[in-house]
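Researcher: Here's my situation. A collaborator sent me these components and asked whether they could plausibly form a single complex. I don't have experimental data yet, so a predicted model of the whole assembly would be a useful starting point for our discussion.
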Amino acid sequence: GESVGLHLPTLSVQEGDNSIINCAYSNSASDYFIWYKQESGKGPQFIIDIRSNMDKRQGQRVTVLLNKTVKHLSLQIAATQPGDSAVYFCAENMAQSSYKLIFGSGTRLLVRP
Amino acid sequence: DTAVSQTPKYLVTQMGNDKSIKCEQNLGHDTMYWYKQDSKKFLKIMFSYNNKELIINETVPNRFSPKSPDKAHLNLHINSLELGDSAVYFCASSQKYKLHEQYFGPGTRLTVT
C-alpha cells in the first residue's frame, strides 16, 4: 500500500505555517517547470507552472520560484492546511521534446494539526 | 464529470498473462499519455500520442502496445506480464498547446504474481 511512499523525503509542518518544497533540476534547456500534487490513491494534479524566462509566479496560496543560476525550483504554500498533505513533484518540459514531462523524485508533505 | 478515467482500478494477474488497461478522457484534448509509477513513487513517461498518432515511445519493451482508436481513448495492452511490470499505471491528457499541463486519471494498480 502507501507504506512504500515513506522512502520519500518528507517535510512535516504545522497547520497554518508556510511550507517550502524544493527541487533541483538538471536540464538548462527546459522551457517550462511545473509542480504537481499527488494525494494518496489519486493521480497527480497540476498545481502551477512557470516558464523558463520568469523567476517567480504566484497562484492562490502558492508561489513558485525559479533560480536558473543554480537550477533550483521551489514551491511555497502559504498557511498550509491538512488538505495540502500529499506528495509533490516538480517536472520539466523541454521545447524540443514537448510531448514529454520529466518528473523529479517527489517530496511528501505532512501537515500536523 | 469531465475527467480522465481508467479501468480497471486494480488488476492482479499471474506472470505470463496478457492484460489491458483502458483510458478515456472527455476533456476534448488531442494528446494522451501513459506513465508508470514504481514502488518508490517515481513517475516515468511511457508513451505520448497526439491525435491518435504515436509521438513518444520511451524505450518501453514491445510487450507493451498502446492503441488509440480515437482521440478520446488510449488503451494499453501488455503481453507476457512479468513481475517487474507491477506498478501503478497512469493515463493523462493535455491540450496540444499546453502540453505541460496534464490531467491524470486515477491510476491502475497492476500486481503481477
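Model: Some features of this prediction you could bring to your collaborator: The mean pLDDT of chain B is 94. DSSP finds no helices and eleven strands in chain B.
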